[in-house]
Amino acid sequence: MKNAETYALKIALFGALSSLGSALMAELLKRQHEVIAIVDDLNQWAPRPGVHCKHAGLDDADQAEQGVAGSSAVICLLPALAPDDPRTQLHHVRALIDGMSRTTIRRLLLVGDFDVLEHADKHSEQHRECAGHMVDLLQRSTLQWTLINAPVQVAGLGIEHFHHTHGTLEPGLTELLQRLARVAAGMVDTLELKLHYGEHVNFVC
To answer: Fewer CB within 10 Å, N side or C side of the chain?
Structure first.
């Protein structure tokens, strides 16, 4: 039963169908928060208590505004939306910032390949340029943003996997599950404790 005195967040989650998305949903639900999973195909989603599904995207500001409506904070997992495509990720970030600017929602956790900000020589020129543009857009906005380095993931992990992070469901998965679960816990702590505004964070687990 939910404690009536507990402050509940309502999180709009872009990239919910990824492994990190599943870890985040499991952690948010464990802490009795609500999740709005933003998907582009409602047929991909199975109903789940505490999780609301909304058909939206980040093609433009109108879609972004529709997706975040009704939430108190937004988490966007760029690698899940446009893997290895910096230009599309930049387009998504621009649409998200423009869409959120039309609302009263200000808190944003943006997950991406932001290692480029500290180790530029390891990444392509396109990646460096797009990451720089993202940071510039965020700094010019009124959002309370946090950049988070994307952790290593594997495809196909659902919420059920993260209910059993201390047991081996499949060979070799235990360590990865626990690492993703710890990253998800750190991200939710960041929201709950109002940490790392305007900062770039790398969770070392």
So the answer is: N
| Residue 50 near residue 35, CB atoms below 8 Å | yes
Q: Which residues contact 84 (CB under 8 A, 6 or more apart)?
A: none
Task: State the residue range of the domain holding 77.
Answer: 10-201
Split into its structural domains, the chain has a count of 1
Residues 2-27: tens digit of each pLDDT: 455 557 999 999 999 999 999 999 99
28 C-beta neighbours (distance < 10 Å), count: 24
Q: How far apart are CA 83 and CA 48, in angstroms?
A: 26
- pTM value? 0.92
Q: What are 152-179's pLDDT values in tens digits?
A: 887 778 787 787 655 545 666 888 888 9
